[in-house]
Amino acid sequence: MSGHSKWATIKRKKEATDSKRAGIFTKVTREIIVAAKAGGGDPDNNFRLRMAVLKAKSVNMPNDNIQRAIKRGIGATESDQYEEIYYEGYGSGGAALLVQVLTDNRNRTAGDMRYIFSRNYGNLGEAGCVAWMFAQKGLITIEAENLGKTEDELFEMAIEAGAEDLKSTDEAYEIYTEPSQLEVVRKYFDTNDLPVKEAELTMVPANTVAITDVDQAQQLLKLVDALEDNDDVQNVYSNFDIPDSILEGIQ
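The structure assignment produced for this chain is given below.
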């Protein structure tokens, strides 16, 4: 999972520093609407909605916005009919890309995906061409600053709570669980006064592809940027692993 951890770190840094990431509110709003429509407006009884609300809070979305999105989901109008679709393809260096979208216009989004991949040295593939490389996992992120626990102590707590693994990055600890255990482990950390920054379901690659060519790395990151800048795209998952020595030169 080392490649996944590194990519998650890159994404967090970009979301914190890139003004274009203001569009994250649009993405989170859609997720809240879809979750509320599917399972009701009570986060305590709707796991997907609870995860969406946690995500909204982690990006500092105002509570009024969250409540409006929930109300839109409960009384979903014609304009709030979103469909979840996964697009699959490859980027430079043979990296696999799995793109989750929520769209109200399948034809528009399909055209956008073809355009973005073709313009950024990628190839949009058929359904199923890369999905088999990924497994769904629960991911809990805990900020490392002022935590008051060593990595070993946190690892022991995570395993005791039912997690599978723990990875550390420069700024946070990432705890991986089976999807069914995500909420159990999250509650465990909350009960033990360890603030959870994010709790979400993610897609983790079984293996990673090392990208050691600078040009390929730049092309790949540009492709991911372009995909994430699309309002319909909720998440981009990939199996690439770019060495720190190369990342430092292109970030």
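Interim note for the steering committee: The radius of gyration is 18 Å. Strands lie at 83-90, 96-103, 123-124, 134-143, 165-168, 172-177, 198-205, 209-210, 233-238, 240-241.
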